[in-house]
């Protein structure tokens, strides 16, 4: 039995509960000054489903929008139908998947560029979409901000859409940094393409954030909470050194065939949960906050 009550729930799985308790206790002892958080966005901070209905990812926001032409939606769906089964195929190695992921993202970005959307379109698309932050994500974002705990959101999605979802449903704070695929708009607000290199689901350890001084500047924050929903997310902080690291994985679908794999790679696996309640309970414990807060 864990001393964090929510970790004893039937939908929470751990390979080594004693190890998890040990890490959390050390983080409590070290205090919030040593903590930082790295999180994926789609289906990690945002919901996989809401009351049985699948919610939009960043890319789905565009596919379901009346702003986008039918020709875009048809091609985007064809790409997803072709490449998504490869992304989640556990019989393939990550190295085998990477060329196909690059293909998918390159094609998808070229397709988005061809539509010539505007910044105003992005706001409208998010407003009408089914993209939703997890229940009680607001608490998590607010409390990390209050204590100035750095939150790096690392996503293979669309940075502009992530920002818009957070602004519309929560708050963007100074302690937050988003690393993602950002659109490049001209002075009239029309999209010209994408900035920088492609970030896909399996190259989160190769992006510019790892060659920048981000992790170096936070070297004194040697305790890491890492949140993700895919094995590729485990690479988000690769190369940075941490004394204590707690890896929390959300397993949203294909539970029976994926649970053992997730348990082998994440310290904590949260199954089919629309909220951030388990993560909040861990965070509240580390920050030594009362349950009423």
TrEMBL record:
Domain of life assignment: Eukaryota
Principal location class: cytoplasm
Cellular component aspect of the GO annotation: cytoplasm
Gene3D superfamilies: HAD superfamily/HAD-like, Pyrimidine 5'-nucleotidase (UMPH-1), N-terminal domain
One Gene Ontology MF term: magnesium ion binding
UniProt xrefs under InterPro entries: HAD-like_sf (IPR036412), HAD_sf (IPR023214), Pyrimidine_nucleotidase_eu (IPR006434)
A matching Pfam family: UMPH-1
Compartments where located: Cytoplasm
Catalytic activity: a ribonucleoside 5'-phosphate + H2O = a ribonucleoside + phosphate
Recorded family membership: Belongs to the pyrimidine 5'-nucleotidase family.
PANTHER family membership: 5'-NUCLEOTIDASE, 7-METHYLGUANOSINE PHOSPHATE-SPECIFIC 5'-NUCLEOTIDASE
Name used for this protein in its record: 5'-nucleotidase
EC number: 3.1.3.5
Keywords assigned by UniProt, alphabetized: Cytoplasm, Hydrolase, Magnesium, Metal-binding, Nucleotide metabolism, Nucleotide-binding
Membrane-spanning ranges: none
First-level EC class: hydrolase
Any Gene Ontology biological process: nucleotide metabolic process
Organism name: Lottia gigantea
């Amino acid at each position: 039995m864990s001393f964090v009550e929510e970790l004893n729930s039937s939908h929470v799985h751990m390979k080594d509960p004693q190890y998890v308790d040990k890490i959390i206790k050390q983080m409590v002892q070290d205090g919030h000054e040593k903590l930082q958080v790295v999180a994926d966005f789609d289906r990690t901070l945002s919901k996989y489903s809401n009351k049985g209905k699948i919610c939009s990812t960043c890319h789905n926001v565009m596919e379901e929008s009346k702003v986008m032409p039918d020709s875009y939606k048809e091609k985007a769906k064809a790409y997803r139908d072709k490449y998504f089964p490869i992304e989640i195929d556990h019989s393939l190695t990550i190295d085998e998947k990477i060329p196909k992921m690059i293909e998918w993202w390159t094609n998808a970005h070229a397709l988005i560029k061809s539509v010539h959307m505007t910044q105003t379109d992005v706001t409208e698309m998010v407003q009408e979409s089914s993209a939703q932050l997890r229940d009680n994500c607001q608490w998590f974002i607010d409390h990390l901000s209050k204590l100035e705990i750095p939150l790096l959101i690392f996503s293979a999605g669309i940075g502009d859409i992530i920002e818009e979802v957070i602004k519309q449903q929560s708050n963007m704070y100074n302690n937050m940094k988003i690393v993602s695929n950002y659109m490049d708009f001209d002075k009239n607000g029309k999209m010209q393409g994408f900035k920088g290199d492609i970030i896909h689901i399996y190259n989160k350890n190769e992006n510019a954030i790892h060659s920048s001084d981000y992790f170096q500047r936070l070297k004194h924050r040697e305790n890491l909470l890492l949140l993700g929903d895919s094995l590729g997310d485990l690479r988000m902080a690769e190369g940075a050194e941490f004394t204590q690291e707690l890896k929390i994985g959300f397993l949203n679908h294909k539970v029976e065939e994926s649970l053992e794999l997730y348990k082998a790679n994440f310290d904590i696996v949260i199954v089919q949960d629309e909220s951030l309640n388990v993560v909040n309970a861990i965070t509240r414990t580390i920050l030594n906050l009362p349950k009423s807060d």
